[in-house]
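[SOLVED] Predicted holo structure with fe (ii) ion

Edit: marking solved, answer below. Original request kept for reference. I posted the sequence and ligand SMILES and asked for the 3D complex as structure tokens.
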Amino acid sequence: MTYTQPALPYDENALEPAISAQTVHYHYGKHEKAYIENLNRLIRGTEYEDLELEDVIKMAKGPLFNNASQAWNHIFYFFTFSPDGGGEPGGELRKAIDRDFGSFDVFKKAFVDAGVGLFGSGWVWLSRDNEGRLFITQGPNAANPLTEGLTPLLTFDVWEHAYYLDYQNLRAKALEALWNIVDWKVVEGRYQ
Ligand SMILES: [Fe+2]
């Protein structure tokens, strides 16, 4: 199959000031486009070419894993955000956050700290296991919790390409700003 890049459900400038139109243009329009093109080129003729992308991520190694995971991660990341986002989660997800982290504020600090503490490029994740327990993980490059048997709920991209145009070296400030655009209804839906 040929993987395609879905159009974002908002305009390039819709996430400002948290993420500029220029960053959305380059990050989703150029970087993500390249990952999907590389994925399609690398997977052709392999045993993986008819699999769902999640299964490719779980099974592939090397450049194919890197491009498959980066392709998936960026769609997951950008489709978490909304110009109407922000606020706080509710429902079962909120109960789980309070149970597993103590409070929403403690969770937010731990999540940003994990992203800031990651040396080099990578991703910080909130995921759940089969029992509904929550975990914050971080990993380099194209890391994805699907490879650890977890279900991803939320991710922040901590590659410099995600924030350097808008925040230069201030990764913590860039990550903090994302709380203003997280659509918690999307994240709650992933938790169910
Ligand atoms: Fe990225």
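OP edit: Helices lie at 21-43, 53-59, 62-78, 91-101, 104-116, 164-167, 171-178, 184-191. Thanks to everyone who chimed in.
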